[in-house]
Amino acid sequence: MIKPDGVANGHTGAILEDIIKGGFKIIALKYTRLSKEIAGQFYAVHSERPFYTDLVNFMSSGPIVAAILEKDNAVEDFRTLIGATDPSKADAGTIRNKYAKSIDANAIHGSDSDENAQIEGSFFFTAFERF
Ligand code: CMP
């Protein structure tokens, strides 16, 4: 998911280009905006964390781009492509290094496991929206 800061700062096209050049196939894509309730559900796994309220407020603050990506070893390779959660620690050339400003406004989210990728993909897309 390209987060509200990535979209608002005009980086959607560049980020999608990095993803495609990284060897990922986009099999579903959507431009939408999360309500607080939906953002809260998406990040329910973090509901006990101190940053949860700020995270939900931020993620519902503007439009996002959701995508399902396909590649061998996709989860690990995508996390390499996007870089560390905290952009100040993200390797040079990674998406967060290039386009993110803070740990909250960190431009992009990637699933942390194949299981969560299935859950998060189904959060945004029906079977008829995947090609
Ligand atoms: P993301 O990969 O989308 O998963 C949860 C998000 O919470 C994370 O990226 C960060 O943007 C945000 N966040 C804010 N503070 C922290 C923190 N201390 N540790 C991890 N994630 C944080």
Outline the structure in words.
With 131 residues, this protein is an alpha+beta fold. The protein has one domain: 2-Layer Sandwich (Alpha-Beta Plaits), CATH 3.30.70.141. Helix content is 42%, strand content 11%. It contains 7 helices and 2 strands; from the N terminus they run ααβααβααα. The two termini are 18 Å apart. Adenosine-3',5'-cyclic-monophosphate binds at residues 46, 51, 55, 85, 103-104, 106, 109. Residues 46, 51, 55, 85, 103-104, 106, 109 line the site of adenosine-3',5'-cyclic-monophosphate (CMP).
SSE layout and pairings?
Blueprint: H1 4-8, H2 12-21, E1 25-32, H3 36-42, H4 52-59, E2 64-70, H5 74-82, H6 95-99, H7 114-124
Helix pairs in contact: 3-4
The protein binds adenosine-3',5'-cyclic-monophosphate.
